[in-house]
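Researcher: Please translate sequence to structure tokens.
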Amino acid sequence: MTDRGAAGVRGPWVALFALCACFFMVMLDSTIVTVAIPAVLTGLDATLNEVIWVNSVYLLANTVPLLVTGRLGDRYGPKRVLVAGLVLFLGASLWCGLSTSAGSLIAARAVQGLGASVMTPQTLSFISRLFPPHRRAAPIAVWGGVAGVATITGPVLGGVLVEHVGWPSIFLLNLPIGAVGLVLALLLLPDWRPSTRMRFDTAGALLAAAGLGLVVFGLQNGQHYRWGAIVGPIGVLPVLGVGVLLLGVFALRQRVPRPDPLVPPALFADRSFGYANLVHAALGFATTGMFLPLVLYAQSVLGLDPVESALLCLPMAVAAGLAALVAGRALGRVGGKHLIITGLAGLAAGTAVLAVFAAPDADPGALVPGLVVAGIGIGLVFSPLTATATAGLPPDLVGAGSGVFNTSRQVGGVLGSAATGLLLQVGLGVAMPNAAREYARVLPPRYADEFVRRITEAADSAGQFGGEGPAVPVDWSPSVAEKVRELATDAFALGFTTATRATLVLPVVVLVLGVIAAAGLPTGNGENRGLPPGRGTP
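Model: Translation complete:
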């Protein structure tokens, strides 16, 4: 690549600051919506499935194009692509904040995710070009630390904004942050331009996009359509099957030699890169999947408002930030593999503790130890994992490697959001009627059936219970109605807690699989590891 306009750059660390500002904003938006779900449910009169899609569509739109957007910087120059993605992201953020319906918000989040997809690979690509291999560990640790802290900070900051300003503010916040990032990017980043043109595997990109989109749509909406027909003869299971088939065809296509493939086979000749991508997918799944049930439980069952639930997550954010600093300093001495395994195990243990201590009448303070342990785990993983995966990539694989590495995390996040949302809805559908039947035993028979029916209907949404409980027929006496509301509140809390505890088991299982994958990583920092002959580091 040629270097144009880099004379104004005062040093690579100053440029890294601009990159981290952009990346922090992207990662913040991957989790900031979670704490606002109850407010969005009420404000837009949306269903739980629709609001889950507000988060999932962002992750999906951020994920599907990554294999292509990772290569855009190699073709047009990373600075120009980063700036274009940032402008698109900011425009979509404004659209999100002004949305007045669930459909509009979902569409805006899709465009916002596309802008994030354009930006994200360029940040890691810049780091690999700004710093030589022997100096990459520290900046990559900073980049990874930003990812971990932003992921945890999202719910904390979102809770404060939702309570005091309103849910649109979580999107409008991006405007001042993005404006600063845009100015810094224009002034501080070198304008590298490619010396040769490359071609895109358009057919491969379409296969990957269509396959992943169908799989996530099927998982996300399976319960909504009762695993039956969607439109006419088209059903959920055939959609899932076609999606898996298309992804299989894409994988086979990438094995055929061709110029400029989306996923160069040489990337996975590096053992660390292959295993690190499996770990990254597990991490994305777990971090995305644990927040949805936890925040809904805190607000819908424990009765915390957005600020209180944000403060509940604050120890987790602090622990993640401190652990990220420790991981960055210890990486050279301890080695990435040991830090990664320790972090994954800590995140799994913290999530398991949360599942154990969740109860309808739990003291929120009892959840803090689990949150702290989970935060330490997240902080220990991000930086070493990024360094282990990318420290030895040669220049001609930087763009593709960045796209693939970020795709693995985002694919995990999309599947985590979809699978957790699905499991939570299924769990509510089972646990809520069971809890209703348990509490209905104390009611006269003529009231019991109606009680169970109304509680069961509420299982479709966490927001269908107001502060006074569910509506009761007008012909019921005030004393009976009051008793029914009390029992309904207790039944709802029991059913939702049971569903939440079951849902939190899923991220723990996936993290155990992540530990198994991390065991395959080589010991050490991994520079110049296992690359094919002639593909050394610059």
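Researcher: Any highlights?
Model: The first strand starts at residue 2 and ends at 4.
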